[in-house]
UniProtKB/TrEMBL annotation:
SUPFAM superfamilies: Pseudouridine synthase. It comes from the Eukaryota. It comes from Cucumis melo. This is RNA pseudouridine synthase 3, mitochondrial isoform X2. Residues 93-264 form the Pseudouridine synthase RsuA/RluA-like domain. It holds the Pfam family PseudoU_synth_2. The gene is LOC103485411. InterPro entries: PsdUridine_synth_cat_dom_sf, PsdUridine_synth_RsuA/RluA, RluA_PseudoU_synthase.
Amino acid sequence: MKFKILKFSPFSEKVQVECPQLGGFDENGNLKPVRKIRSGEIMEIGARIHLPVSVAEMKVSRRFDTIPSGTLYPNADEIKYLQRLVKYKDSAIIVLNKPPKLPVKGTLPVHNSMDALAAAALSYDYDYGPKLVHRLDRESSGILLMGRTKESVDHLQWLFSNIRNGKFTCKAWEEACNATYQKYWALVIGRPREREGLISAPLSKVLLDDGKTERVVLANKASLEASQEAITEYRVLGPTINGCSWIELCPRTSRKHQLRIHCAEALGTPIVGDYKYGWFVHRRWKQMPRVDVEPISGRPYKLRRPEGLDVQKGSVLSKVPLLHLHCRELVLPNIAKFLNVFYDKGPISHRPVSSFDFDLLRFVARMPSHMRISWNLMSSYLV
């Protein structure tokens, strides 16, 4: 007798099965190698499967709010921490302000990634936690969007895909989709030649000398490597102060490391703290030299540090600054409202009534502390 296992939940891909040909346990009781269960795989009766701790302890942890330490499941402090990052939630989406250094996607040994924490901490009254629909780099910060239901995840993934196929059946939905955008703020070394513009520079992936590590680079027209279209709008937000400029980036496509590569290689102004794509520029960069006048306007400089300000927390005055890239603003369709229309559902009682009638939702996320310090230092430099 056999049975078929289906991919029924976000955790099924983490379920593992012992390999029968290897004998399961050895004579000392140690577990022999296991492998992941494939979706749709036919299994024999009596096969031994293994669930990760995050699945096995979910019901216990939700009930008692006490999570054993040393497990792959986040502890109570991590859950409370993630819940404090939530800026908005309704029946369809959850919006967070992701801090820097917190990984968005993690494998089984990485239990403190955003998706693992969300599965445990952000389910609220749902059976499962929300699912990521777009990503931010580990070192970057800002608005992170998650879908709470299969319908919302499908619509959001389509919305953030680089190719939108299908016809619109609702004019309001079409207009809301066309109005969707993301805006990032970044501090770059140097200054773009033009105050604003459109970068259209395809990207491709290449293997480094070790033959294992992939790196994203600007596509070479003469190369045989496959390339992906990458488009970014940008504008300079203010004057160049001590060799750095604040710029606003609006990606029209969603490619891995798109903004970082466009800044470093297309504009020639790498983002402060981006040592992967701007290492050589950082080596020559002299941080915050003390000068008397601003080189463009000729106006005097004066540094006024707020009382008690610690400039060593990853700001431009730190020896090793953190990445200064922040997803500050997001505008997207009111998914909960449109799903209610598409699927002809009744009123949603636990959704904020004040925002249910709007076709668009707008979110603005505060910059992390190291970027706020840099902003305060540089904005107070010019008087």
